[in-house]
Protein: PaaI family thioesterase
Amino acid sequence: MLQVWPSICAKPLPDNWPLISRATGLCRWLLVGKGRALMSEIPDGFQPAQFNGPYLQRGGPYYVRTVGDCYEVGLRVGDGHINYIDIAHGGVLSTLADVALSFQVYLSERPNPAVTTVSLTTNFLAPARLGDWLVATTKIDRLGKRSAHVSGSICCGEQTLATMSGVFNVRRAVSAGDKR
Structure:
């Protein structure tokens, strides 16, 4: 037997997804099983990211928050992120890694430089599942004239799901007196 979400959601739920409550038109639900809570809310401090381009809009939605001198990028694993074995596709985690690492470089100085990926390494340690809240934390290891080396991790709660590192081309605005 399937339970049905409130009319605003209009999607049947499996028996192991009991409806908890609804408020102000937002569905709130909990996944029972495998010890994972699945809530639709976004954790405190995260704001919707204003990333440009249709690729990132389709891959998200992404959220950002500032922690000290660093920025964290968050993502709730949704239906569109899941592969045929019911875990987040590796491309979703790799894209989150690329976004978070390059965003750290982009926000490292004013005016913001153009940042492009030269290389990206993602080490998958554990799977992400539907409803997981993922947080990518990054740090700049080295920032040079033309390149940046950045590393970080993607976690779900206390569990590290992936580590990542990347090298990025950094193209700064050229001033009138600067010759390159």
In short: The domain at 47-171 is CATH 3.10.129.10 (Thiol Ester Dehydrase; Chain A). The helical segments are 54-59, 90-106.
